[in-house]
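Board notes (copied after class):
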Amino acid sequence: MSIGNISGTGQVGGIVGWAFGSHISTSFASGNITGGAGIGGIVGSAWEGTTITSVHVFPGTSITGEGGWAFGGIVGDLRDSSVTHSRTHADVTAVMIHAWDWPPSSTGGIVGSAWGATITDNEMWGTVYGYDDTGYIVGSAANSYLARNTVHQL
């Protein structure tokens, strides 16, 4: 369980910053999570066969992506990995730091950016504010499988 505030420039998560071929289950997080790329309520970036199951991001959690990409309520950047049977109550927001920068992209309620990912049986409460590629379940997805995910109205 992680309760508190954390910030960094990239791969910032409430439990794990960057997971590679790992298994993360029955974990909980809350607080303010802030960073530039790969920012998630539980895991910042999850790659290469990482499985995330039965995790929960508590109400009142704020995830703020500052100018980069891949911001999600559970995982920011999910590649060739999965998120199943999980819940998030996070508010996910992408903000521009400098007017001359490219707008932040890939902001999602559950996953920010998904490549070759499986995202099933998850629930999302909360808000999502982004620029390019913004969605309640996933901000952007390529070669991914999504099924039985639910967005609840607040």
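Comment from the instructor: Residues 49 and 116 are 10 Å apart (CA to CA). Residues 2-151 form one domain.
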